[in-house]
Design brief:
The protein is of the alpha+beta class. The chain has helices at 61-70, 73-86, 130-137, 142-155; strands spanning 10-11, 42-49, 52-60, 92-96, 110-118, 121-129. The protein is globular and about 35 Å long.
Length: 173
């Protein structure tokens, strides 16, 4: 295995803790179950605008899989092809996994962070800049966007549907 793809699990950094709860994420945003109960792990997603967290969630692997299974086949295939062709693994949270622009050089300082975790361990982290998020969000069908909008409506009442990027960049499991 080359060094780029090797990754040693480490404790989940504070950057991936819940800003709202001021602690590590404990439960799945979708089902409410304890994240540490899932041996297959969970994902964390956070959206930043000018260093402020404007949106965050943690989702267990079964809920993530269930939500992705609801996406249209065309969206799933298009996104899989896009990320396989464009995502550079192993960059961590310091550079965009698609365009490789360092976080410190982002013109609008808007980005999303994602992490794959098991228990209290971080397996892999990534960052996607807002420009690359916009490109990937344009790849999803109306059906898929509707599923994402339902997730927002159910779990984040009062948040406008079009204010948050679709979780199309979280497919680490």
């Amino acid at each position: 295995m080359d060094d780029l793809n090797e990754y040693t699990p480490q404790p989940i950094p504070e950057e991936f803790h819940s800003e709202y709860e001021e602690r590590p994420f404990l439960t799945c945003t979708r089902c409410g179950e304890t994240l540490s109960d899932f041996p297959e792990g969970f994902q964390i997603a956070k959206v930043f605008r000018r260093e402020e967290v404007v949106f965050e969630y943690a989702i267990c692997s079964p809920c993530h899989t269930s939500m992705i299974d609801e996406f249209s086949m065309a969206s799933r295939q298009t996104l899989e092809d896009y990320y396989n062709a464009n995502m550079t693994p192993g960059l961590g949270a310091g550079s965009c996994g698609i365009c490789q622009l360092p976080r410190k050089d982002l013109p609008q300082n808007e980005f999303s962070l994602g992490a794959a975790c098991v228990g209290s361990q971080l397996l892999e982290a990534f960052m996607i800049c807002s420009s690359c998020m916009e490109v990937s969000n344009l790849l999803v069908s109306k059906q898929t966007q509707g599923i994402w909008n339902d997730f927002i409506d159910t779990n984040f009442p009062g948040v406008p549907e079009d204010s948050m990027p679709c979780p199309t960049n979280v497919g680490l499991f």
